[in-house]
What we know:
The complex is a heterodimer.
Chain A: E1 3-6, E2 15-21, E3 24-28, H1 33-44, E4 47-48, E5 51-55, E6 61-66, E7 70-71, H2 75-83, E8 96-98, E9 108-110
Antiparallel strand pairs in A: 1-2, 2-3, 4-7, 5-6, 6-9, 8-9
Chain B: E1 4-7, E2 10-13, H1 17-28, E3 34-37, E4 53-55, E5 64-65, H2 66-79, E6 83-85, E7 88-93, E8 98-103, E9 107-112, E10 115-118, E11 122-124, E12 140-142, H3 143-153, E13 160-164, H4 168-179, E14 183-189, H5 198-205, E15 212-214, E16 216-222, E17 229-237, E18 243-245, E19 251-254, E20 257-260, E21 264-266, H6 269-273, E22 298-300, H7 311-334, H8 350-353, H9 357-366, E23 372-376, E24 380-384, E25 387-388, E26 394-400, E27 404-414, E28 423-433, E29 439-443, H10 445-449, E30 455-463
Parallel strand pairs in B: 1-9, 2-3, 2-10, 3-6, 10-22, 12-20, 13-14, 13-20, 14-15, 23-30
Antiparallel strand pairs in B: 4-5, 7-8, 8-9, 11-21, 16-17, 17-18, 17-19, 23-25, 24-26, 26-29, 27-28, 27-30
Helix pairs in contact in B: 1-2, 1-7, 3-4, 4-5
Amino acid sequence: MKRNITCIICPRGCEMEAELTGGGVSVSGFGCARGRQYAENELIRPVRTLTTTVVLRDGSVIPVRTDRPVPKERMFDCMEAVRGVKELPDCSPGSVVIADVCGTGADLIVD
Amino acid sequence: MAERVFEYDLAVIGGGPAGMSAACAAYENGVKSVVIIEREDALGGILKQCIHCGFGLELFGEELTGPEFAGRLAAKVREYGIDCMLSSMVLAVDRSLNVTATSAANGIFTVRAKAVILAMGCRERPRGALNTPGTRPSGIFTAGTAQRYVNIDGYMPGKKVVILGSGDIGLIMARRMTLEGAKVEAVCEVMPYSGGLARNIEQCLNDFGIPLLLSHTVTEIRGRERLEGVTIARVEAGADGVRRPVAGSERFIACDTLLLSVGLIPENELTVNCGIGLCPATKGAAVSQDRETEVPGIYACGNVLHVHDLADFAAVEAALAGRAAAGRIKGLRGGGCGSGGGSASDGGCASDGVRGCGGVCAGDNAGEEFRAVFETDGQVRYTVPQRLTRRCDVKVYFRVSGIFERVSLEVRATSVGRGDENNLIFTKKYIKLTPGTMQTVTLTSEMLEKCDSGAVIRFSLVPQRRDDK
């Protein structure tokens, strides 16, 4: 069955059509290779980059994100893990907050 | 005690993406005496609270969050040693390029500059602009205010949310509130289409099953102390074209929070108080290709000039203003560059000047005088810039007033005293144009050769002819 997919890779938001075929995924309407990859992922294993904040015990709010996209259905698990962080020895950009967050293979890092 | 006076070549008002980008561009083009005046206690502007991804693809070629994007620009500002006056509020800018500001550190002070760049950004339309009937309980926020509470201050403004308006900030906040545990009941959009990016509808609403109710609005706000709910209704355009709620379509949604994402307005109090008129469509100053306002030496860029879709675009535009301001300043320094009025950029050496104004200005100035103004047909709602002061390749940004399919943009020039009136100088076909997406076209100097000075250049949309492929 064909699925309509709106690309989220860049602001152009290409409207694509994707379908699972015997050999993989057939995609049409993509504007670039990254878009095509996105459409393939959407059918097989949708992923998203998670961005949120950690609120430390002292009240400071630090923006954080996963260093690569995580499975879409794990986003709320990751949010739960983020809520547990109350101390952060290093708040400099790029430093790791949680390594391999929820076993997704992605590190949660400071923005 | 006398007021303190600071002297700089360039004063940039606002330390967001546009202000930082403009300041850096001026520095890179040879002007080292630059100050950024910022009312908050850190650079970055609104990007500090935009913790989501999607920034930087245009400017840095990689996907960054708002704080990361701001961090890149701020690092450049630091590297260049550009002065930043933080926690400093600008009160006035005058036509002689004096900036009056106030801060705890300096009291009321003046910055005297040779050029001023306005980069104050925009603010959100508040509830008061909507005339929504009902009570005045707590729990009603603009989406950006809620974003600040969540992302900077670490507070959740509510648990059960309705969002009015489908601008990008509203969509982003729908996801953000959901991730933080709130239930977003619906996003209502009065128009039959969303003003937000397609990708934000996808990743912020569809990912979480949040309904987007097009042609819907909030018709009543209920609650005494705290918001208890809103009545929403379907909206239809009557015979007179006015969109009104449809009787009988009302539905009550219990909620404790209403977020408004109903448009952004450039924050132009300083501009207006300086006597600079605003373009009614953009609500920003009317500018030349160099982003120079009607006052020589005062430039405007970023969201204070017109609301951009992306911070990247605001930063790119701001670099134009920074380069042009540098050209002017160097022209003044070099002496003979300015034309009669004393404005170097008026004479045509502004952005040419950046590639070596010192030697070539005289030659540039010797070229014929050129002036043109842009006009739109209403379907094209506005262009930026609004006028040209020289023939050069110019990127024109424009926005349309509705959804148009299978149309051609036509750019026609009418030159006074020339036989070939309504001369088509550029045309481009579009499959679909929407108000939410800013478009750009480039007019080349060759195209402008077809226009005399004083030309009116009109942007209009026409249906595509059937034989067009």
